[in-house]
Amino acid sequence: MLHADGNWNVSRLSELLDQAVVPHVLGVLSPSFDDVRDRVAWRLTPTGAFTVASAYEGFLSPSWDVCDPKWSSIWSLPVAQRARMFLWLVLRQRLMTNVERVRRGLSSDPSCSSCGCYSETILHILRDCPPVRSFWKSIIPQVEHECFFGASLDHWVAMNIKTSRALGPSTPPWSCFFPSFLWQVCLNTDASVSLPDHLGSLGGVLRGSSGDWLRGYRQSVGVVSPLNAELWSILVGLQLAFSMGFSRVQVQSDSSVAIRLILDPMAANSFSSLVRRISSLQNLPWSLRFLWVPREMNMVADGLSKLPSLNDFHLQIFDNIPESIRPLLVRDREGPPYRHRC
Ligand SMILES: [Zn+2]
Questions:
Q1: Domain Reverse transcriptase zinc-binding: where (predicted)?
Q2: pTM for this one?
Q3: What is the DSSP letter of 36?
Q4: Residues with CB under 5 A from ligand 1 (ion)
């Protein structure tokens, strides 16, 4: 992939590599025959030699996400904080896709549980899975399809959050719409189990594409394990979402075990009746996505699950946000981003 003069052959690189990767290759001095062999070097010291001090400093350094324009462009978007947080997770490749599960040794099946595509990547979930693709095609002008559907993940996010054109004459720019359009409705679920009696309570919230409150719920259940309480909360939230007629729902839970059980290919035959019931809901005519999210993205559902009990086991529906939850929602929508180091 070098020209005769020893420089990179950009055309050849462009043929073989993703367009977003090419500039990174070009940023490396092209190899020459009289170079020494490649060797491992530590990038946090000017000499390339590892030191514990530099590793510690690098680990604590708060500047990684500030210096890179990719991160600052996300945190400066005038959208709800949870939308920014979600984009951050996308670009950090922290969404628990089936490909990621295989990579971590949690599963042997990387295929999409919705369409059967061999590889369920983040881009597949957010853009390329047929039901989602249909949605994007309905709002993206046809002349832009090739660019929109052909971009790599980083490039796709970058170009969409930089696009200033609007869908209509009096609507905000696309860069503000895009993070919200990544899902139609977001269902956050959580549960808590009190000690020592092990009584469980569920909570959850349905929010629209701009983070607006649609409906919340809370329910006390009996003696239950923390995992079953999490699963139960997901089930109740899904039943509520279906009854409201939503067709594209992204379920977010901070219980990785619950999400893993639901996404197991054998979920329909699970030992858990809760998992089987949730699995059966996936056969209804709607599109569901299940994502693990960090607890920081789930604080409203957490707050709802901890609301005082009305001493019965009936489902409480909140058409309007309870006052005690409002600060959590405001923090979620408008507060400064939670800081992460990884
Ligand atoms: Zn799919």
A1: 50-136
A2: 0.57
A3: P
A4: 112, 114-115, 117, 129
